[in-house]
Design goal:
The complex is a heterotrimer of chains A (332), B (758) and C (165).
Chain A lengths: L6 E3 L4 H11 L3 E4 L5 H6 L7 E4 L9 E4 L2 E5 L4 H6 L1 H6 L1 H8 L4 H5 L4 H5 L12 H4 L29 H8 L3 E6 L2 E6 L19 E8 L4 E7 L10 E9 L5 E9 L6 E2 L1 H5 L9 H16 L10 H24 L1
Parallel strand pairs in A: 1-3, 2-3
Antiparallel strand pairs in A: 4-5, 5-8, 6-7, 6-8, 9-10, 10-11, 11-12
Helix pairs in contact in A: 5-9, 11-12
Chain B lengths: L15 H5 L15 E7 L5 E7 L1 H5 L3 E6 L7 E2 L8 E2 L5 E2 L5 E7 L2 H10 L1 E6 L6 H6 L13 E8 L3 H7 L2 E9 L11 E6 L5 E4 L5 H12 L6 E3 L16 H13 L3 E4 L2 H6 L6 E10 L5 E13 L5 H15 L5 E9 L13 H18 L3 H8 L18 H12 L1 H4 L7 E11 L10 E7 L5 E5 L8 H13 L6 E5 L16 H28 L6 E4 L2 E4 L2 E7 H10 L6 E5 L21 E12 L6 E11 L6 H21 L5 E2 L2 E2 L18 E7 L16 H18 L10 H12 L1
Parallel strand pairs in B: 1-14, 12-13, 16-17, 20-21, 27-30
Antiparallel strand pairs in B: 1-7, 2-6, 2-8, 3-7, 4-5, 9-17, 10-15, 11-12, 11-14, 15-16, 18-26, 19-20, 19-25, 22-23, 23-24, 26-27, 28-29
Helix pairs in contact in B: 6-7, 9-10, 10-11, 10-18, 14-15, 17-18
Chain C lengths: L3 E7 L2 E7 L5 H8 L18 E4 L2 E4 L12 E3 L12 H8 L9 H14 L5 H7 L11 H8 L16
Parallel strand pairs in C: 1-5
Antiparallel strand pairs in C: 1-2, 3-4, 3-5
The chains are: A alpha+beta (332), B alpha+beta (758), C alpha+beta (165).
């Protein structure tokens, strides 16, 4: 399966890249590891005129601890994140999420964390070849007016299946977007448009530069459900963060459910219901897990391969297991 | 330790070296001078009349060398059987599934070929599509094929008589329905074909195939050239699993493009095309009604099976029969009525696949477990009371010669600890058993036999010619092992010329499960005939009767006096110098009932041997997530004789992966309006290395079939079926609910657990 | 679209080849350089059949642009043997019956080779994890896992290990 034609640009520095982005904007797409972009191009889902490659931008590949934060360059390969002691210890949910992305030999050395965050939303009706999509009306995401996943829907219901974004949102991460002559830092939880067609609140001349994870002495965990133990995107996933007091009580919880909606779902109310609860309060965890299920069920449609009922039911399992795991790490 | 020198040993395969070096050539690896890239234009509609095709813009595109449509053919409908001729090679009137071939293009590169496809303007008139087989039978809309009322493609009816009266005698009767959607082959190698006409107007073809002679005959017919001018070549093949056997439109289209352009043309399928535009397994709804006596012996059985055949017949009659036949071989069923319906729908074409009706087999075995439950006997016991015995006749009147079904049951039970575990495991921890049987071949008329030629070269090494094809299962190695054994040579002294229709004789094809039994047997006979000639010459030199000679390790020597020997090489040379040939041929034709026909006369000797197998599976089910953890699988098969245990084990393990792990837990196709949603390796869930059970026990049972070469018969495949049944039974046992809908995905398991609680 | 001249370092040799920007490394290996050992089975980076090494790390060549493969050491399955001398891993695959149709074999070997360079004596669980991204339809993986785990590490109980070979 061949890629469509494009013009290839290989900037040597970040500034050069930003310059090119500023010039070409919508005409161009950023190429990092290629797992998401190149596959979509092969299926004919998009045909960008220009690819701006981050290959030479080693300056965007780093993991460091600075001023109470972990800072990760967007172009850092997943393998580096998995190998990082710092991340394993202090941002465990991210470590667990990256481990489960794809498979070692096919994604971890080429795939990047930025690429995983910015992977396009998915739907098993949309992510199909040109041929599959011909002979039927185009769906919303494909430039048409129909949703094949939810009848009568007037908007796209494609799903965010990013393991990395789910975990990072649970960790309370911010991201830095750079552009020519500008920079802004955004809370990841505010980065989503909830529009299935253009999921990210990001301009075409902006580049994801850095991920910033606050270190607040909390523990985190990530749980992923898929049919197989590798290769697959999540059919439902959950990332949690638990910050505790010296009295082993939860000071702050963050529960994020992924692969159920057009963005990872940060469940603020459910999360705050855990405030003050003890770390071994299994009943409270169960309650929160069930509440997570109720909250996220409304968003999901049948478009990622398993039955909808099953995915909804599993939200509770994933959240509960993640909470238990995070609590266990704290006790160590 | 084996009784033989080479046969029976764990011998690494002769084709492995080239494969580990990346040197083995598969069809997509071929480069021929001037080769063009071919692509197929496919219907995007499931059911549509073709009103017009305008190829002018495509032809005008620079780099396009030929465009073909139905107008370039005679529009004749082809079929595997005379009564299933329903498919044109390029559709002229109607498209009947999304993917149906309507045109072909040959161009200088892929980009140009694809652009040309876009420029072919096809005007369709959409017709009401039918996707559900039950609806198809009742439908009042336009028939998919006008000659097949009610959209029924094939109806197999088998009735041994006395069914109703024996039901009346039954102590306990159950009727249960089982459902399974289609599964899919997913061979590692996507289908690819290369074709060219040479300067003598001979057609050369390379493609993965289940039997090159199955491809050459229809090509000879459709291009109206004699068989000796159709050369389907040997090429490394990346899996078949029962597919890739009969001719397909793309084969014809590729050859036609080659003819028109006078250049070689290669068409490589994408993974999607391999999934939707070759074959898939049949989705089936099977109802078994079984009546037993108080001991659990089956007195009467009635089975009805509705199969979703897709848009064309393919090997319909065989596909509609084999699920039933495998079970009637495995179990005694003296009084049985079977009605199998293969129904057309506007979906991709269904064909013969290794798992042969997982829902069907799992249904029958599950029902036996349910009956055993009711009668208070254990699953092993009920199987032993109904199992096939040597000397039996099957319901459709095949004599069963060698049969060690019971031995496979006993050995699997012992190794797995079934008796210690069954009924004693904690909740959500289960163990289950499945048994099955596979026919070693079926009546194939003029192509039922295999013939081999062997020639000796002056250096004392031999070239063996055989029509047997290797799809990856190890047939090439099997032929060389046999030839080396009989000729007294070492495997490295044998050069194999196989699966090439220019030089090799017709062979039934690997998909008919007879590569060893018939093809290997032919090589054995040819080699013995060669040896006889060698001995005749050697006996004069060594001054002893030919009966006293042995050929081994490149020598011919006197049985009780091995010092008296002569190298085979020398015997060959002496022969040639004395105007005597040492080349020979050999052939084997199984004595089957040539009057047996799938639909019109489904009775009589089906084949000369049957294999039998039992698989026991132990699992743990997560009651919260519905996921299955497979602890251990024990697979036992009566293979007659193990020519190469190393290869055999690999077949068992592959069978467990395909029939059990994938077939029972994760593999199925999902559809939307006739479109297959999961055509890719990402979306169709084949098992991965980390998904497979950590412990697999392979038990080879040898009943030494009297007809099979060295006693060997079909090997490895019955495990694909009994594994499915074992997985299903184990999960059912773990959750305390007999499952009737396959595969057993987590959602179904959870739903069953929930329902049980209520 | 213009072709660009690139230099690739493959299996220890430097090759100059003209490529289009949209050529993948897999296409260039197979179509331009006659290195057909790496295979296309899925075309979308899910099956591992196209696995090659770039600076010793396994990557899927079907999603790597050829012109981004410059400046690194590329190893394909053809580069595992030393002339006609197979590597221990390759020989182990043959001896253990780990090759059936052979289509997934090159990718398997490349993934396994990368594992063994990092972990010369992996247990079976680690092998399965390392090969999780390589899909095989024929073998059920058992003998592949054995072949990798027993490379340079022969087991007494295994009839197919040939110690000292």
């Amino acid at each position: 399966m061949r890629l469509p034609r494009f013009k290839y640009l290989g900037p040597e520095t970040l500034d050069q890249a930003l310059d090119l982005l500023n010039t070409h904007k919508d005409d161009a797409k950023i190429l990092a590891g290629g797992t998401d972009l190149l596959v979509r191009m092969k299926k004919g889902l998009l045909k960008p005129n220009i690819l701006i490659s981050l290959k030479a931008l080693n300056e965007l590949s780093y993991i460091k601890k600075q001023d109470g934060y972990i800072k990760i360059g967007a172009r850092t390969p997943l393998a580096d994140i998995i190998a990082s002691d710092l991340i394993q210890k202090e941002a465990r949910a991210l470590f667990q999420a990256c481990e489960k992305i794809g498979a070692i030999t096919i994604q971890h050395y080429r795939g990047t964390i930025g690429g995983n965050i910015l992977q396009d939303n998915r739907c098993h009706h949309y992510n199909q070849s040109d041929f599959h999509r011909s002979g039927r009306q185009a769906c919303h995401k494909d430039g048409g007016k129909i949703c094949y996943a939810r009848e009568e829907a007037d908007r796209c219901n494609s799903t965010c299946q990013s393991d990395g974004a789910t975990a990072l949102m649970a960790l309370g991460a911010n991201i830095t977007l750079e552009s020519k002559g500008g920079q802004r830092t955004v809370d990841l939880a505010n980065f989503y448009t909830t529009d299935g067609i253009m999921p990210f609140a990001m301009e075409s001349h902006e580049l994801l530069k850095e991920i910033i994870i606050p270190l607040h002495g909390a523990q985190s965990a990530y749980q992923k459900l898929a049919y197989r133990s590798a290769i697959d995107y999540p059919i439902v996933c959950a990332g949690v963060l638990l910050k505790h007091s010296l009295k082993k009580e939860i000071e702050e919880a963050r529960i994020v459910v992924g692969a159920m909606g057009r963005s990872p779902l940060f469940l603020a109310q459910v999360s705050s219901s855990l405030k003050g609860k003890k770390l071994n309060d299994t009943i409270a965890f169960k309650k929160a897990a069930d509440a997570s299920m109720d909250s996220s069920a409304t968003f999901a449609v049948h478009n990622v391969g398993a039955t909808l009922d099953y995915r909804c039911a599993m939200v509770s399992q994933m959240v509960f297991q993640a909470l238990e795991q995070a609590a266990k790490y704290i006790k160590r | 330790m084996s009784d033989y020198t080479i046969i029976g040993n764990r011998m690494p395969r002769i084709d492995s070296r080239a494969k580990v070096m990346g040197k083995a050539k598969f069809t997509a690896d071929l480069k021929l001078p001037g080769m063009l890239v071919g692509k197929i234009k496919r219907s995007p509609y499931a059911h549509a009349r073709i009103l017009n095709i305008d190829t002018s813009k495509a032809l005008a595109l620079p780099g396009v060398k030929a465009v073909v449509t139905g107008k370039d053919t005679e529009g004749i409908k082809w079929g595997v059987f005379a009564y299933t001729r329903d498919q044109q090679f390029i559709q002229t009137e109607k498209a009947r599934y999304i993917g149906d071939e309507v045109a072909g293009v040959a161009a200088v590169d892929e980009e140009t070929a694809l652009a040309a496809l876009d420029l072919i303007n096809v005007i369709y008139e959409e017709l009401p599509p039918i996707f559900d087989p039950m609806e198809a039978m009742a439908s009042q809309t336009e028939l998919i094929h006008e000659d097949f009322p009610n959209n029924i493609n094939i109806h197999v009816n088998i009735d041994t008589g006395h069914v109703d009266e024996n039901f009346k005698k039954a102590h306990y009767i159950r009727e249960d329905t089982f459902v399974a959607p289609e599964e899919s082959y997913f061979q590692a190698e996507p289908y690819t074909i290369a074709a060219r006409f040479d300067h003598e107007d001979c057609l050369e073809v390379w493609c993965p195939n289940g039997g090159p002679h199955m491809k050459s005959k229809p090509l000879s017919n459709s291009f109206k050239i004699p068989l000796h001018k159709v050369k389907v070549r040997k090429i490394a093949i990346g899996g078949a699993f029962g597919g890739r056997s009969e001719i397909c439109p793309v084969d014809y289209i590729c050859a036609l493009l080659a003819k028109k352009t006078k250049r070689p043309v290669k068409i490589e399928f994408t993974r999607e095309e391999n999934t939707i535009a070759t074959r898939q397994g049949h989705a089936m709804i099977t109802t078994h009604k079984t009546g037993v006596d108080k001991d659990g012996k089956v007195l009467a059985r009635e089975t009805t099976c509705y199969m979703d055949g897709g848009a064309y017949s393919s090997t319909g009659p065989i596909a509609t029969s084999v699920p039933f036949l495998s079970m009637e071989q495995a179990y005694r069923m003296e009084s049985v009525r079977y009605n199998g319906y293969r129904i057309y729908t506007n979906k991709p074409i269904r064909g013969m696949i290794r798992t042969h009706g997982r829902g069907f087999a799992c249904g029958l075995d599950t029902q036996l477990d349910m009956i055993a439950d009711h009668l208070g006997i254990d699953p092993v016991e009920i199987r032993l009371r109904n199992s096939r015995q040597p000397g039996d006749y099957t319901s459709t009147k095949s004599f069963v010669d060698s049969c060690a079904m019971d031995e496979t049951i006993h050995k699997a039970v012992e190794k797995s600890g079934f008796k210690k575990k069954w009924g004693k495991l904690p909740p959500f921890h289960g163990i289950g058993i499945g048994t099955n049987s596979v026919q070693t071949g079926f009546p194939m008329g003029i192509r039922g036999g295999s013939q081999s030629f062997i020639k000796f070269n002056e250096d004392g090494e031999a070239t063996v010619m055989s029509g047997v094809v290797d799809n990856g299962q190890g047939n090439d190695n099997m032929l060389v092992q046999i030839a080396a054994e009989e000729l007294g040579l070492l495997p490295e002294d044998i050069h194999l010329v196989s699966a090439d229709t220019e030089t090799t004789s017709s062979d039934p094809g690997s998909y008919s499960q007879v590569s060893t039994f018939v093809g290997g047997h032919a090589v054995k006979i040819a080699a013995q005939n060669c040896r006889e000639k060698l001995f005749k010459v050697a006996s004069k030199i060594l001054k002893t009767a030919p009966d006293n000679l042995v050929a081994k390790n490149r020598l011919i020597f006197v049985k009780n006096d091995p010092e008296k020997s002569i190298p085979i090489k020398k015997v060959v040379r002496i022969s040639l110098l004395n105007f005597t040939s040492v080349n020979a041929e050999g052939g084997y034709w199984p004595k089957v009932d040539m009057k047996r026909e799938w639909v019109s006369n489904p009775y009589g000797q089906m084949c000369e041997a049957f294999s039998f197998g039992t698989t026991i599976v132990e699992v743990k089910v997560d009651p919260d997530k519905g996921q299955v953890e497979v602890i251990e699988v024990t697979a036992a098969q009566d293979v007659g004789y193990a020519l190469n245990p190393l290869v055999l084990e690999g077949q068992f393990e592959g069978s467990i992966a395909m029939g059990g792990q994938g077939g029972m837990l994760t593999e199925y196709h999902e559809w939307k309006d006739g479109r297959c949603i999961n055509t890719t390796m990402l979306d169709y869930k084949l098992p991965l290395a980390c998904d497979m059970p950590p412990k697999i026990n392979n038990i080879i049972v040898e009943s030494l079939d009297p007809k099979g070469p060295y006693g060997a018969k079909e090997a490895g495949m019955s495990i694909a079926m009994s594994a499915a049944q074992g997985y299903s039974a184990a999960v059912s046992n773990a959750i305390g609910v007999h499952m009737d809908s396959f595969p057993l995905t987590p959602d179904k398991i959870l739903a069953a657990i929930k329902e049980k609680k209520q | 679209m213009e072709k660009i001249l690139i230099t690739l370092n493959i299996n220890g040799q430097s090759c100059e080849v003209m490529v289009y920007p949209n050529d993948t490394l897999l296409e260039v290996l197979r179509d331009e350089l006659d290195l057909t050992g790496s295979k296309e089975s899925c075309g979308e980076g899910a099956c591992g059949s196209c696995t090659v090494h770039m600076d010793g790390k396994p990557v899927r060549s079907c999603l790597t642009l050829a012109l981004e493969a410059q400046g690194v050491t590329i190893t394909t399955v053809e580069g595992l043997a030393n002339g006609d001398d197979l590597s221990d891993l390759q020989q182990s695959f043959i001896d253990h019956g780990a090759v059936q149709c052979g289509f997934c074999t090159p990718g398997m070997l490349m993934s396994a080779d990368a594992l063994l360079k990092n972990n010369p004596r992996p247990d079976k669980k680690s092998v399965r994890k390392a090969l999780a991204g390589n899909i095989c339809r024929c073998t059920g993986y058992t003998k592949i896992v054995e072949a990798v785990a027993h490379t340079g590490n022969p087991k007494d109980h295994c009839p197919d290990c040939k110690p000292g070979k």
